[in-house]
Amino acid sequence: MNVAVCICTRNRPEDLRKALASAAASRLAPHQIIVSDDSDEEQAAAIKSVCAEFSDVTYVRGPKRGLAANRNCCLDNLLPEIEAVSFIDDDAAFTPDFLSVASEALAAAGPKWIITGRERKNGEEVSPGNVSFWGHQRLLARNADDCHAIVINATIFPRALFSVQITLTGAPSEVRFDEALRYGYEEADIAGQAESCGYRIQLKSDLFNDHFPSSVNRSEYSRFVEASRLYSTYKRYRWLQKKPGKSAVFALLAPAHLTLSAAKTCRPDNVRRAWESVRMAYGYYQGEARLRCFRSNLKM
User: Fold this and answer.
1) Cα 260 to Cα 237: distance, rounded to the nearest angstrom
2) Among the four given CATH numbers 3.90.550.10, 3.90.1640.10, 3.40.50.300, 3.40.1580.10, the one describing domain 3-217
């Protein structure tokens, strides 16, 4: 398979160098390596210099609208002949056999499969977690046929997935990472989109990549996580699974559940942040609802 490696980066040149070195050391050489760079202007030159250390790296400036939009920027720059796509964060690294084993598994599985493995996060093994009612990615697959989640740093997608026309609005649009999700839960959302189009996820427990979470940008990203969970879970129930009753119950209970969890810490700042997350998630919903209405009107 012609495999593309997509690396989204922001202000982490040293981490990026390790990620690119791991791709260069893969037993199966990537057909294309794309680095989409959301860095601040003062860091962009350093990122571009790191990319120049490696042959055949496609460097593009990212849209600077969050991680999901940056992943879509990678998809927009794929070569026509690419057949499979693997994303890793700039603070992750491929193991030497990952691309060869994963692409072989994808070819054997068939056209409507996604192959996911696990990551070693600072040496600790992390498996894909199916989402609970509240949207937390904590439910481990009961068996090989019960995997409905991915680990984004250890997954290979068929390129064809991102050309699928998914009808969620009354009008079709392509499967893409949801750009409302600036950080967090974009992997849960893309798995949900894929399954709604008839794709299935195969877990290969012996397939690993490494992840060394960087502290750079981490505190800035943290404020988006709970809003992403609330919005992506509501979206899953209402628009992907088409269960309006379940989505209504979630919309009613989830804000109270988050607020009560924050209140149990006895820290007013946590309660304030919980309500900020609720307001942010509602803003995401309003934007998505307007987009769906617009697309539906276009079709008419």
Assistant:
1) 22
2) 3.90.550.10
